[in-house]
Amino acid sequence: MMPSPAASRSSPSPSLESTTNFTDAESESVEAHTDSMERDDGIVVSSTHVPTRVPVGDPLLPGPTITANTAVPVIDATALDNRGINANEQREATRIASLEALGKRHERYFFTADFLAFIVEGSVYRVHEYLFVDLSPLWAEKLARPDRTADPIRLADVSRQEMDAFLSTLYPTREQNDACHLYAYWSAVLRLATMWKFDKQRELAIDALEEIASPMGKLILARRYDVEVWLQPAFIALCMRPATLSLSEAKHLPLQDVLHITSAREVLMINAEDAPTVEEVSDYVGQHILGLQSTDAHPLRGAANTSPNAVGSDEHSMEPSPIALTLSENPTVDEKRAFVALFAQKNFKVALRAVTSRNVRAFLELLKDFSAVLSSPTFFTLDLLPELVNRAAFSIPDGIIVVDLLKAIHLSLAVEGDDGTMKRTLTQSTLREVIQDFVAGVYTFVEGLNEACSKHADFALGYAHIALTTRNSLLSDAFGFGKTVTNDDRSSFNHRCHRLQAFFSALVGAELLAEDQLGDLGLA
Hints:
8 strands; about 50% helix; elongated; 3-stranded antiparallel sheet; 3-stranded mixed sheet; single chain
């Protein structure tokens, strides 16, 4: 696929001028001789004959070369005074005036000799200015500024490979055929076209990448350069493929996308014998990941309802509330009364069901106004934190909501002073300490459970043994189980460990937990 050249309406495109700087040592090793001549405008020009072959250009898009006995014009900078520059400008103005005397200037196909010079990684580019003015409103505005100078524009955040790839869409060459199938080539075009607002070049890159980019590549580029049309197909492909996300892939994605994909795949694995169709996965992605509305939405077959108000989604799901608990972004008086009653009973399990990504701020304000749970590390640890962890163990999307709530709580707290006088109150630093201590306790709990199960050769007996102490009783509540379980609960417990592992990773991303605190959850 070859792009339709943006400059095809002009006269034949000149080659891009590219020069490369050499070190002093390299210069001394070259034997050269110089001839001088004086032009009719009084500027002295020297022609340096280089008896070597020096490649110029880039491996991605092969450029011209300087071969033996090639004369490279070098203009004496001292001769470029204001009179010389003005004389050149005057001659150009005279030529334009003489042409306009013959007829009206065409509004589209009348080009001047204005050029733009760029410096990219030591190489100098000189291209037609009208291409940037006509195709980019950003550059049109920049180049129309009254304070603009004639100095070359240095592009510190652009590489030569990227510049060569982008300019090749303005000046198509035969060499471009070899690069048309390269992901790196078109992703470079997409980056610069998006950054510089070249809509036609952006569309060109999107069309090309549609054929050659993998679902992971499309998701990465879609997030970076706002290509919304790729999001849903990429998520569907990644959720349905046999292989899970690798560590290297996850590093290129936002943490929330990693959690979304992990959550969706977990739902898909619940009933592997009756796998969902592409249409069902598409609905799931649209509703739960992208927040789209579907007129004929249907849940995944065999999948548990992951809504925080769902009942019976697994063996130990939260019991149903006797009333439909809701919380608006701007809570009503009746909603406030309902939460005040729950806070008075310390029933944070039920209160947390109504929390969504949209009303986190409203729930936080209710906690601050009508509960003492944020006044002390002890109250927070005993009353709220276990229920937050329990909510995160319920499903990965719930874990994302809990992380958002903890981030909001953290930002609302005071920063502890150096004198340590605020140790007895919940501050930003004590909140992080409490979270880290609780997470460490969860890992210790699971490690002890593994040892107890091995000793007694039974999951239910091992759990009964490890849940005896007060500390471990608090941790077992965080998993959503009581002090007694059956052997049938082993699979459910492992699923919750998997969700908590994702939750703890999200806490690291939110800078509420140190990375070295992460361990391995799950039964041996």
